[in-house]
Predict the 3D structure of the following.
Amino acid sequence: MKSMPVIPPSDNRIAQLIDANLDRAREGLRVMEDWCRFGLKRSDFSIQIKDWRQQLGAHHHKVYRKARLTSNDPAMGVSHPLQKIRSSPEAVFIANSSRVQEALRVIEEFTRITDPNLCEIATKIRYKTYEIEIKVLNTTETINKRQTLKDCAIYLITTNRRDLEGIVLQALKAGVKIVQYREKFLNDSEKISQAKCLASLCKKYNSLFIVNDRVDIALAVDADGIHLGQEDIPTKIARELLGADKIIGRSTHCLEDIKNAEDDGCDYIGIGPIFPSETKKQLKPIGIDYLSKGLSKTLLPTFAIGGINSSNINKLNHINDLSIAVSDAIINSSDPFSKTKELLKSLT
């Protein structure tokens, strides 16, 4: 668009409200920019928002600044009760994003004739803020998921049971923060139906839902991620299919597996089997010493797996900040809630 001259508004009140909304939009953008910079560590987001702020600043002409209304502003200092209940950075970000969008809309409406350049810029930035709002929310969700991954003490792996949903529900209530859906017998339609149900339960309890092996089912139920064995598809292909925001875990059985998982960009690993496992009877246990060595070789969130239960977990007490993945110990327990609590207590 060819640059057009600014026509001073014939009504000074129009200049005042344009000035006020330029200030409002730029202030809101600064809050958004700083959260992206310091909170999310996303320089790409903060640079983009800073550019919008600078564009508006370049069009904050003297004609608007000179009309500024401060001491006689009847609404100066007026707040709203909702401002006091924004308990999270995300809530603050959304509130300021909305503030920017509203201010830009006002600018658009009152500059169409007198300042078409500012009107066009305000329109473009307003639509872009809608887009970046979604990106920031997705980024925040991803960060929260990875924090859950780091903090998780017990990772539950399912096996085929008629009352599986009820068992998983009790484990979630007791404190399980990750559930992996592992099902080898049902047909795909039944798997998807059951996976959707379990995914919904996990979401309700702010826990992660991971699908074993099947990227297609993970996508179908919008799972938080996928878990892969050593013979499953390469991590690179799984990442291309799932996208950057999904979690990818990998089973490892030796130091080379651990290194490969790190190099491939996995988000977490399982090391095992530590003890003889009912789930993976064909695998020879690697033992506790090997577990300790493996833990020392990686910075990835790591779960000890394989035959761990309440009768042998005390053998792992010397390992600091241990996280475990279990199946039989909880799934086939007569009281999944109490068993989960018992295992959690042993870990802490």
About this structure: Strands lie at 154-157, 178-181, 208-212, 225-228, 247-252, 268-271, 302-305, 324-326. The chain has two domains: 12-145, 152-347.
